[in-house]
Amino acid sequence: MYPEFKEVTLEDKELVESITKRFLPYCDFNFSNIYNWSSPKNPTRFSILNNNLVIKMKNFTDETEIVSFIGDTELINTIDTLLNEFTELSMIPSECIPPEFTEDARFIVEEDINNHDYIVSAQELVELKGNKYKTKRHWVKTFLKNCPVKVEVITSPDAELTRKILLLTEKWSKVKNTNVTDESHALERLLFTYHVYNLLFICMFDDGELIGFATNEIVRPEYAIGSFGKAIISYKGIYQFLEHTAAKTLFDKGIKYLNIEQDLGKPGLRESKRSYRPVTLLKKYKIRRSGS
């Protein structure tokens, strides 16, 4: 197929996952992320090179294009071939970089620290034991004391819940004065194609009003990925309670690890994700030719 690229569609899910399922669940190569973050203005495209999956997609933080791949076949040839066309490859999973490659003087390999995935323990987020979770315990207790909310775990969001989730996302963006156009489009795509994935929607209601939600996709017997979540921040402790509740729901279903995705180099997001005390990072790398 390479050097041809095609826009990703739902019909490509089986092909894409025939490659990605051989690896740990890197969020960027989870099919729902590949598909849902594709848009008419910035479509995500993919190709197959040496039985490896190559993707071209819009950068999450600006208008530039990201080129990456995942696979385990003819890796040096794959990297060399791609760098004949593209200046830099990024978000390359550590599993896809052969050890001898880092010693090859023709290439520069650097950690893509803004895109490492944070992997947290579901059990630890349920139990919140020890001093390291002292602050989160406080906020969970504060929320429970002051906010008698109703929590629902939903697998099939209807039209009314879909409307409420998108409306809450819009309200959140106005409070934060943040542009969430791309995120809203991706979320809307997920809501309209939920039946394709193994999803859990953790929803919190106060007197019938949706005040918080989190979407989690079970992607492996022991792994889930948390992709979207928003809450009304005037409810003190709501995010801590939301994550705690999501973790309990997942843990009860046998999930040990939750991928809470990358921090994109944003200081506030990095601080927030580190506060969940990740047990490991799924590291990714950038590769370019020496002298380029």
Question: What would you note in describing this structure?
Answer:
α5 (134-146) crosses α8. The protein has 2 domains: 6-115 and 283-289, Aminopeptidase, CATH 3.40.630.30; 118-261, 3-Layer(aba) Sandwich (Aminopeptidase). Helices cover 32% and strands 27% of the residues. By secondary structure, it is of the alpha+beta class. The model has no long low-confidence stretch (mean pLDDT 95). It has helices spanning 13-20, 31-36, 75-83, 122-127, 134-146, 159-176, 181-192, 238-251, 267-274; strands spanning 6-7, 45-49, 52-58, 65-70, 88-93, 107-111, 117-121, 150-154, 199-206, 209-218, 223-231, 257-259, 280-282, 284-289. This is Phosphatidylglycerol lysyltransferase C-terminal domain-containing protein. InterPro entries: Acyl_CoA_acyltransferase, LPG_synthase_C, UCP018688. Residues 28-286 form the Phosphatidylglycerol lysyltransferase C-terminal domain. It comes from candidate division WWE3 bacterium RBG_13_37_7.
